[in-house]
Specification:
Alpha-Beta Plaits, five-stranded antiparallel beta sheet, 2 domains, 5 helices, alpha+beta, acetolactate synthase activity
């Protein structure tokens, strides 16, 4: 019998798969990446994630320094501490990347997301939807006799909770911007 014994059903791991399912737990991390605002940069950053099998839970990007031609990409991703460290290291090596901050690891941060909800309803369901919107501080930005469009800003968890309550009341569509985040205090990612 050979010293190498491969069991049926065992899976091989990718060279990029740094997860050890027995010891480390995946965590959600919010990364702020300051990049050169030029064509193709976002595609390269996304390519880094997809090429290595990392998932992106949320992605936002916008120019933050017009004169310096810099944009801020906010990425929410999941992984073990080793995977998150690997993502940061790979992002830092990219030429158009100026800076990378793991807002989750650096301390408290403020996260907000904008969402629009289209809810259809009549009678009691319509009244209940309006009452819940008031509790969640969602604004009515469009109204017809059969539907509402609510606008809400809050944490991703608040957005999820509102969506869960609206589903049985006639939720038709959701549009979400993705997470925007800043560290608390005087530190800066820019």
């Amino acid at each position: 019998m050979s010293a190498l014994n491969i069991k049926k059903g065992s899976s091989s791991h990718s060279a990029y798969d740094l997860r050890d399912s027995h010891t480390e737990v995946e965590e959600s991390h919010t990364l702020a990446v300051i990049v050169e605002n030029e064509p193709g940069v976002l595609a390269r950053v996304i390519g880094l994630f997809s090429g290595r099998g990392y998932n992106i839970d949320s992605l936002t990007v916008a120019e933050v320094d017009h004169t310096g031609h810099r944009s801020r990409i906010t990425i929410v991703t999941r992984g073990t501490p080793a995977v998150i460290d690997q993502i940061e290291a790979q992002l830092r090596r990219m030429v158009p990347v100026y800076d990378v901050h793991d807002l989750t690891a650096e301390g408290p941060c403020v996260q907000r997301e904008l969402a629009l909800f289209k809810v259809a309803g009549k009678g009691a369901a319509r009244v209940e939807a309006l009452q819940l919107a008031e509790i969640f501080r969602a604004n009515v930005v469009d109204s017809t006799l059969e539907s509402f469009v609510f606008e809400m800003t809050g944490t991703p968890e608040k957005i999820d909770a509102f969506a869960d309550l609206m589903r049985p009341l006639g939720l038709l569509e959701i549009a979400r911007t993705g997470v925007a985040a800043l560290s608390r205090g005087v530190t800066s990612a820019a």
